[in-house]
Design brief:
Order of helices and strands: HHEEEHHH
Number of strands: 3
Number of helices: 5
Strand order of the largest sheet: 1-3-2
Structural class: alpha+beta
Distance between the termini: 30 Å
Radius of gyration: 14 Å
Helix content: 40-55%
Oligomer: single chain
Largest sheet: 3 strands, mixed
Length: about 110
């Protein structure tokens, strides 16, 4: 899939988040990369990654670089058989990483 189309699907997934969450996503960049760094792949196929300070750990005085949510296009495509699958996986991965942004742990996300 062309990067431009993949990024369109990411934008659609972001727009499709409930407004209560979308409105609270501040100072966070959504970044599409082909693959994660090699050291990040140690625990299996990584589809996305939140890099930053969870919102629940920030004070009102926090100012810093934007948090980042990475989506790894090649890995997402590797687990999908169609564009519809890619769309669903982008949404699921984005929701997972947004959960980390809001301070949810891996265990809490698995329960959801």
């Amino acid at each position: 899939m062309e990067r431009e189309r993949f990024e369109e699907l990411v934008a659609q997934a972001l727009d499709g988040l409930p407004s209560a969450f979308r409105e609270k996503l501040t100072n966070v960049a959504i970044i599409v990369e082909d693959l994660p760094p090699k050291e990040a792949e140690s625990e299996g196929l990584l589809l996305g990654l939140f890099h930053g300070v969870p919102r629940t750990e920030k004070s009102v005085f926090f100012s810093g670089l934007p948090d980042r949510i990475f989506l790894y296009q090649r890995n997402i495509e590797a687990v999908c058989a169609s564009e519809a699958d890619v769309r669903r996986q982008i949404r699921a991965t984005l929701l997972h990483e947004v959960g980390h942004y809001f301070g949810l742990s891996e265990d809490e996300l698995r329960e959801l």
